[in-house]
Design goal:
About 35% of the residues lie in helices and about 20% in strands. It has about 100 residues and is of the alpha+beta class. The radius of gyration is 14 Å and the shape is globular.
Length: about 100
């Protein structure tokens, strides 16, 4: 199973999201081809109702602690309640280009 699939499975099981997108953005960074080290995670879940952003991120960091301790170098989190997701019309910001490593000018 891929790291991306592991992340998706853990989040699905724990948070039962109404929307989940786990995007492997490793290709945007200075890493070997087919790496699974940089992810953008968008989670919409009623489990986030009444929780501040830091608490939501802590939930995901705890859930993905094994991945963060090993192969995952960066995790961009977008955590919303269903109402917040609807207010944003299901849109999130694009990730900026990588400026680190040998890609920096």
């Amino acid at each position: 199973m891929t790291i991306q699939a592991d992340i998706e499975q853990k989040i699905q099981y724990a948070l039962q999201p109404t929307f989940l997108e786990v995007a492997n953005e490793s290709h945007m960074h200075n890493v070997p081809p087919d790496s699974e080290s940089h992810f953008k995670v968008t989670v919409v879940s009623a489990e986030f109702d009444g929780k501040i952003l830091v608490a939501r991120h802590r939930t995901l960091n705890a859930l993905l602690k094994d991945e963060l301790a090993g192969p995952v170098h960066a995790l961009s989190l977008h955590t919303m309640t269903p109402a917040e997701w609807q207010e944003k019309n299901g849109e999130i910001r694009k990730s900026p280009p990588c400026l680190g490593g040998s890609k920096a000018s």
